[in-house]
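Justification of computing resources. Each target in the renewal requires a structure prediction run like the one illustrated here; the chain below, 208 residues long, is used simply to show the kind of job we budget for.
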Amino acid sequence: MNDLLDDLNALREDAPRRLGPAVLARVGLGDLLALLESERFGPVLVAFNGRGISATGVGDPAEFERAFAARFGRPLSRIERLPVELGRALHRWDEGDERALRFDLRTLTPFGADVLDATRTIPRGEVRSYGWVAERIGRPRAVRAVGTALGHNPVPILIPCHRVVRSDGTLGQYSLGGPDVKQRFLDLEHAGPGAPGGTTTREVRRHG
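Resulting structure tokens:
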């Protein structure tokens, strides 16, 4: 009997290292990280799980991982490529389908979720003011709070907080690197104050 047990134990193989992180990600207890090569924005870091995309960023993956752990407290594991289904959805988004993606925004307050949902409705190639977003969610006095919520957007670029500017047409701040990066993203979309074919300062005021 002991020989039989030894033989059975010898047949046992350890689970693939990727299995644990994949299972945690599927149930939303962990996340996976892969790189999206966007035609417009270049390399974008995308964290995701079974609920949807949870965070995005640009720059150093190690720094992104540290920030993710500090903010969400969940394990984050790198993978070589995006899953096919998610890759297709991101491709549709890159081609202009702003509603192609699902997001995991469970850590946001209801107010923050409303702000990001309103921001998703801003058409590509246009900008709106912080006041417009506040009006859109039925909180017209909460302009400053809208700016704070956008500053904590966990999925910038994909939920386009770069399309929200001040009512006087100036850019305001941006979590991925300040006004210069915000202007670069708007230029890529031909949007923003003074951009060829974009929404002008006058139009920003008209939209609110």
